[in-house]
Design brief:
globular, single chain, about 50% helix, alpha/beta, 4-stranded mixed beta sheet, 5 helices
């Protein structure tokens, strides 16, 4: 293998390999703020959370979006949440004042992705505390709606 073809192969490998590792699959356009692709919430529960998130946006201009999926596939929760956050354009353009609550059921993974404009109000430590003290215990007990509802309340309180 010549130096040129070796360098070309290396460049190709570096550019293509990350896309093989991270398999983010676009979910499509969001249907409001509460997007349950896994069928966890019933229609009444979805409406309760959706109304709360609509009011939050009206009161603050900031947005909280929820995505409940079955699996991340071969992706990481960090990469998936960043990709979905960008695809959906959560928050106001130029203000980056959005939050994504991503729940991957089969993978037992949860992440709160916070736009730069809200990072001082909802820190990584606060997000981790919401996940560990509210979401995880409720999910383990099978109380998905309660966990999500209480987490949304806590996020709103922090903002």
């Amino acid at each position: 293998m010549s130096r040129f073809s070796g360098a070309l192969f290396l460049a190709f490998f570096i550019l293509i390999f990350p896309s093989l590792i991270f398999a983010y699959s676009y979910l499509g356009k969001p249907d409001g703020f509460t997007n349950d692709f896994a069928g966890v919430l019933n229609s009444d529960q979805r409406v309760i959370i959706e109304n709360k998130l609509e009011k939050f946006e009206q009161d603050t201009g900031s947005q909280i979006a929820i995505a409940i999926i079955k699996s991340l596939g071969d992706d990481t929760i960090e990469n998936y949440s960043v990709s979905l956050f960008k695809e959906w354009g959560i928050g106001e353009k130029g203000k980056d004042n959005g939050i994504l609550l991503l729940i991957a059921l089969d993978d037992h993974k949860v992440r709160i992705e916070v736009g730069y404009g809200l990072e001082e109000r909802l820190t990584d430590i606060q997000s981790r505390e919401i996940i560990n003290s509210i979401l995880k215990p409720n999910f383990r007990a099978g109380n998905f709606f309660r966990g999500i509802d209480l987490a949304v309340d806590q996020i709103i309180t922090e903002i």
